[in-house]
Description:
Helix content: 40-55%
Strand content: 15-25%
Structural class: alpha/beta
Bound molecules: zinc ion
Strand order of the largest sheet: 1-2-3-4-5-6-7-8
Number of helices: 9
Low-confidence stretches: none
Oligomer: single chain
Distance between the termini: 23 Å
Order of helices and strands: EHEHEHEHEHEHEHEHH
Amino acid sequence: MTIQLVDTHAHLDVTEFDRDRDELISRALATGVTKIITVGTNVTSSRRAISLAEKYPQIYAAVGVHPHDADRAESTFLAQLSELTRHSKVVAIGETGLDFYRNYSSREAQFNVLRGQLELAAELNLPIIIHARQAVREMIDTLGDWVKRHKDTSGKPRGVIHCFSENEQIARKYIEMGFYISFAGYVSYPQNRAPAVAKKLPIDRIMVETDCPFLTPQKYRGKRNEPSYVALTAETLANALGMPLEKFAEQTTENAQKLFKI
Ligand SMILES: [Zn+2]
């Protein structure tokens, strides 16, 4: 039996995939990746994500502005994103967040585009995909405030912390607020703490992703990452959790389908 997985976070629109995009998508689908969410990082890339979702029934799109792109966001970016969400294959807002490690955009701009997208997600009742790097306290405060303000509205605030690499205590804070925790290929790197953290978390809140073309699992480290490699992340985590791979795949797939309504 082949296992079935969802790659909950891929960047299929990037130029790294230009020469063989269709082949690597077919390869993923043939090896048990049943669904892929391709994630926009600005308005243009979000449009490309939607085009890919139109081409493949198994691909869905998220539309958003990444913290790296915050400085370059047009004043009308929220209206543009809102317009894009009318497409039936758009299942989330993101990715958005805070990145105080790279600091490619000013903190002020990062906060502004994040808060705007959080409000949009609540308004449209869509999940949010969060990128947080070296910004734990700021992110917990911002999301905590968002959840509190919207907890009584019909569209319950919800989302995922993607590429989670913090400790168990921080994971639990996000989970308490209603978020899912998603892990990528770094779980297979030597001495990485993520498998031990994942083991302590409720299995109904864990998801897997590639974040391809980045964060290639250990086995192919140094090469370009692609959606079919999500199986390697699932394998590492299933081992750490002491679960059969099939069962881990089934549960994380169910989690992804529930959050994104796919
Ligand atoms: Zn990403």
